[in-house]
Automatic annotation (TrEMBL):
<feature type="domain" description="ABC transporter">
    <location>
        <begin position="263"/>
        <end position="459"/>
    </location>
</feature>
<protein>
    <submittedName>
        <fullName>ABC transporter ATP-binding protein</fullName>
    </submittedName>
</protein>
<dbReference type="InterPro" id="IPR017871">
    <property type="entry name" value="ABC_transporter-like_CS"/>
</dbReference>
<dbReference type="InterPro" id="IPR050095">
    <property type="entry name" value="ECF_ABC_transporter_ATP-bd"/>
</dbReference>
<dbReference type="Pfam" id="PF00005">
    <property type="entry name" value="ABC_tran"/>
</dbReference>
<keyword id="KW-0677">Repeat</keyword>
<keyword id="KW-0547">Nucleotide-binding</keyword>
<dbReference type="InterPro" id="IPR027417">
    <property type="entry name" value="P-loop_NTPase"/>
</dbReference>
<comment type="function">
    <text>Probably part of an ABC transporter complex. Responsible for energy coupling to the transport system.</text>
</comment>
<dbReference type="GO" id="GO:0042626">
    <property type="term" value="F:ATPase-coupled transmembrane transporter activity"/>
</dbReference>
<keyword id="KW-0472">Membrane</keyword>
<dbReference type="InterPro" id="IPR025662">
    <property type="entry name" value="Sigma_54_int_dom_ATP-bd_1"/>
</dbReference>
<dbReference type="InterPro" id="IPR015856">
    <property type="entry name" value="ABC_transpr_CbiO/EcfA_su"/>
</dbReference>
<comment type="similarity">
    <text>Belongs to the ABC transporter superfamily.</text>
</comment>
<dbReference type="InterPro" id="IPR003593">
    <property type="entry name" value="AAA+_ATPase"/>
</dbReference>
<keyword id="KW-1278">Translocase</keyword>
<dbReference type="GO" id="GO:0043190">
    <property type="term" value="C:ATP-binding cassette (ABC) transporter complex"/>
</dbReference>
Amino acid sequence: MISISQGSLTYGEKTILSELNLNIKKGECVVVCGESGSGKSSLIRVLNGLVPELYDGQISGEFKSLTHQLPTEQFNDYVKEIGVVFQNPKTQFFMNDVYSELAFVMENYGYSREEMIGRIETISKSFNLSNFWNRKMTELSGGEKQRVAFASACMISHELFLLDEPSSNLDEKNIDILTDYLIWLKNNKQTILIAEHRLYYLLPIVDRFILMKNGRIVGNYTKQELLTYSDQELSCLGLRTLRKPQINLIEKIDTLNKSTNQLRCENLVYAYQKEKPIIEMSEMLLQSNSVTGLIGENGAGKTTLSHLLTGLLKPTAGSIFYNGKKQSRKDLIKKSFLVMQDVNFQLFFETVEKEITAKAKRLDLFEMVVETLQLDSLLDRHPQTLSGGEKQRVAIASAVLSGKEIIILDEPTSGLDLVHMNEVSLMIKKLNTFDIIFLIISHDKEFINRSCHQIIELSKK
């Protein structure tokens, strides 16, 4: 099904993949894991034909997928045979509403109206998307967009599925839904290749784990082999736990005799136009002496709340206070820094160093931040050439060096491996002594456990 012999990929003078040898049989499920920047996404890009069709890389060695030698001259025929889910789901959306997006790929290949309607109903039932048909794509949460992206990839039958971090931004409920559908694909003898950092949810379907480092394959483990490893042994490989994480918060820092900054909300309400309020909160208190985690289902309003707290949205009702003083939107914008789910929206400069220093007010922290987040080797790189996890670390570095008093991280571990997740957590712990208010929006319980002292849970209205 997939055969790679001495496969390599270069971008200009930089080697991204080197001397890969890998065979994947029909019906097999293989998970590619390893550190951010190890080459996982680049391997997916070669196999889905986007290199060199979209990304101008040079391929050497032999890459075979299905009946095609890659890069293929029959690109349009090849992509019809594969289902693809990207790390950033928005990059594969074309339509304004969910129903049209689900129909889009079938319309392109000339399916009849009856076939499209039937398939949309079937897939929507599996992904619990029927209530989303009339929703605009721009109104969906990050996790909801991820579900739509995966459902769209399943609208027509494929022999091969290539998935790049499909659990990114999904809550526990939707990860369970994703697992169920992957089981369905596996039972139908589909071949599945997944690049992923979260591993526990894939145990019901995975046959092998391929470990990558610095563009090379350094390990090839059966599921049974990797299950014999302890969490400590997995950590030494740079891998996350194979056990489903549970919330177990770190102890609160002793802050007696320490003055703390406070951000308080009273009777906060927000509704989109004339719709039912998505946020209704009688009171919420965030303090600089403790890191707060914000959890809740996809679509519960977590990102909306972050936009209210940073002044990007105006509340429908209620007030926000900082150290007892009522804040305007302008006040909140000056005091806060939001690291978005999609960090591509906030990367503007031509080098990483310029990106993190251009508006920095805490350059005294530069060396500590660069060392902790392992950005030394990336300082001269263009931010848009980085992997998803590397971009995430750059955005977090920008937030830390900004000198802002309120920092909100929206799904900061999207694309981060275990090593870099721990680095970000360590950074937050260090900065917790600087009187910064931290709010972390995340479905990642491993990260919540390492970083947060208290939890606020939003429920879906």
